[in-house]
């Protein structure tokens, strides 16, 4: 079973990204033929600073390797290292009705947010279709906002297959319904754009600062506290097992500790949870050549599949 997903290199990763997406992605590793790439061509639609894009791309590669992508179990590469994707993007463009793209929510949302309405942004789903179809992907794990793009991919593939026979594999999207929305330090959905994140790779000092700012009620230290709706507790829930949570509930009820104590417990838990990933990240930051080798190997594997697929497609459409 080929499972493929793309990651936008969009900078600093937070707990929402990890528990809402990265953890699920990693669960496919070892169980299926996992293909993961860094979508740097897609990132061009929103990032125009070349130096920043270059740095974000390698930084995303380092972060994902540190968090558990194993290049021996998954094929991991940078999108732009397999140029066939751009060729397929163009071929598919001629099988993509305008109306399909005009209906895309993501385009409308981005323009409403003030991103320039350019052609790259508009045809973004066609490039995503090329990413998916080039590798005969069967399952595409995505967040809710990307479901429509996978549906567009299916529509484009159907149009192509109607003309040329069963050439392209129709993918299915997969969203994990069990994934809860991770709250930020203000209780709203954790998101870069709300400035309410707790970041995965940060210093202990910064982590202390971020957890210290979590909004709680003002129950005095000596009174029992409610844990059910507490943001600190909700975040602890991501890191603790059942016994630890029961113990924490007792501490909330005891009236002997304040929120500062619970925040300190959370900080320690987060720090411990990502300690191995942090060490790996330090290692890769000091060995970037190794990271580049891993990505080159991944690109080689991906390209071998892509070039065969493109030969078939060129043959069908009549490109010499
Ligand atoms: P941000 O909102 O910080 O810009 P992105 O849109 O880059 O985050 O999200 C990347 C992935 O992380 C998406 O698949 C999304 O579903 C997941 N994600 C982001 N924030 C959260 C959250 N607070 N809770 C659960 N999942 C999240
Ligand atoms: N558009 C996706 C996002 O913003 C990233 C992406 C690009 C992708 N190509 C893909 C995801 C192919 C899945 C499959 O998150």
Structure, explained:
The protein is mainly α and 320 residues long. The chain has two domains: 2-182 and 288-317, 3-Layer(aba) Sandwich (Rossmann fold); 202-273, Tyrosyl-Transfer RNA Synthetase. It contains 14 helices and five strands. The strands form two sheets. Strands 1-2-3 form a three-stranded parallel β-sheet. Helix 1 links the parallel strand 1 (2-7) and strand 2 (33-38). The model has no long low-confidence stretch (mean pLDDT 95). It binds adenosine-5'-diphosphate and tryptophan. Adenosine-5'-diphosphate (ADP) binds next to helix 1.
Give the topology:
Elements: E1 2-7, H1 15-27, E2 33-38, H2 40-43, H3 50-67, E3 74-78, H4 84-93, H5 98-102, H6 105-112, H7 119-134, E4 139-141, H8 147-164, E5 172-174, H9 204-212, H10 231-236, H11 242-254, H12 259-273, H13 275-286, H14 288-317
Parallel strand pairs: 1-2, 2-3, 4-5
This protein binds adenosine-5'-diphosphate and tryptophan.
Adenosine-5'-diphosphate binds at residues 10, 16-17, 20-21, 143, 181-182, 189-193.
